[in-house]
Specification:
With 368 residues, this protein is of the alpha+beta class. Helices cover 17% and strands 25% of the residues.
């Protein structure tokens, strides 16, 4: 059962402030059902991806801030060793679920997908899933705006966003009725000092039903905020406050393993040039293929069938690490996924196709 806070908190809670990104727009010929299945998966990574993370640590890493009195100050993005250790531990907790993703710390921002700053006063946030790929190499994709040396849940929460999971309290299935005036008032005060639009985007606004996995609300999710007494009107059991249990909830674990199941060698198809291989995939499932060229040249990889999904080409490193080379997302478009890339003789490559939607007709993948 959910733990309920029976005593109002005296101190305001610091909250994650997700960056606002452009919403996806579909053409009129994309059915509602097709949109639903695309949106719940389109921020997720191809399973098997190695996500490289980098900590900004140079003296020049940071930005100049202009205050209301027109004074200026340079605020660093560097974090302390204890804060970095908390983030590393949080990555290991996600990995220890037995998932198909790998996490690796790197020393160069150009080798990373995830770039982490510790700019105090800038809030804690992360871009959602594959949106991190749209950010420049000198830009943060994740930030911790307060000291997280002893705050593992904040680190778990932000990494959850990077894995493609949205805020759970904005789940339209939650049935939360807010005391909106009180929510806006509380968040406008320290320590958050949010304007009304920021509060709406991160608390009041219901996220699209299409982007939510499953039909249940999980008030214990690591992706759920903690709320003080007086902010929630209904369900009535949370009038005195809602405090999620610490750590990952059973439902967090279930859905993470669903989207990122641990991979076995038997999950891989062997591709040969000019020979198509059929793919039988359900919602959110993925087919991984392996290919070892006998000659160095440009190869064309293509899917066939009426489906939506993302295809990613990896090179397999000497230590088994999958290194991202190229990708194509064909979802919501009247085309199939295609990648053209020069591959080298005797190197090993992995082609991953994660399916979002299928009309039920046969699908296949071919390399030539």
């Amino acid at each position: 059962m959910k733990k309920k806070s029976n005593t109002p908190q005296k101190k305001g809670k610091l909250y994650c402030n997700l960056p606002v990104t452009k919403q996806r727009i579909f053409s009129d010929d994309v059915t509602q059902k097709r949109q639903e299945l695309i949106l719940v998966s389109d921020k997720k990574w191809a399973n098997g991806t190695t996500l490289h993370y980098y900590f900004f640590d140079d003296e020049t890493d940071g930005q100049e801030v202009i205050y209301s009195d027109c004074s200026k100050a340079f605020i660093t993005w560097k974090g302390g060793n204890k804060e970095k250790a908390t983030v590393r531990k949080a990555f290991s907790i996600w990995k220890d679920l037995g998932i198909g993703l790998e996490f690796k710390e790197v020393k160069n921002a150009f080798d990373s997908e995830i770039r982490i700053g510790f700019m105090k006063g800038n809030g804690s946030w992360s871009y959602l899933g594959r949106d991190v790929l749209r950010q420049g190499f000198n830009m943060r994709t994740m930030n911790f705006g307060w000291n997280i040396a002893n705050d593992i849940d904040t680190a778990l929460h932000e990494i959850g966003h990077t894995l493609g999971f949205p805020h759970e309290h904005q789940n339209p299935n939650a049935g939360i009725i807010w005391d909106e005036e009180e929510v806006y008032r509380r968040l406008a005060e320290p320590p958050n000092n949010w304007d009304q639009q920021t509060t709406f985007n991160n608390i009041i606004r219901k996220i699209e039903r299409d982007t939510v996995q499953g039909s249940d609300w999980d008030p214990n999710s690591i992706m759920h905020y903690q709320f003080q007494a007086g902010m929630i009107l209904k369900p009535e059991e949370y009038i005195n406050g809602l405090v999620p249990d610490p750590g990952l909830s059973p439902r967090d674990v279930e859905w993470t393993r669903f989207f990122y199941p641990e991979l076995a060698q038997s999950d891989y198809l062997s591709l040969r040039p000019a020979k198509s291989e059929s793919m039988v995939l359900g919602f959110g499932q993925q087919q991984n293929c392996v290919f070892k060229p006998t000659s160095s040249r440009k190869y064309h990889i293509k899917t066939f069938g009426e489906m939506d999904g993302v295809m990613v080409l990896f090179k397999k490193g000497s230590d088994g690490e999958l290194i991202y080379l190229a990708g194509d997302d064909d979802s919501g478009e009247n085309k199939t996924a295609e990648i053209e890339h020069r591959l080298l003789k005797d190197e090993e490559y992995v082609i991953a196709y994660r399916q979002f939607y299928n009309t039920g007709k046969a699908s296949a993948i071919m390399l030539y």
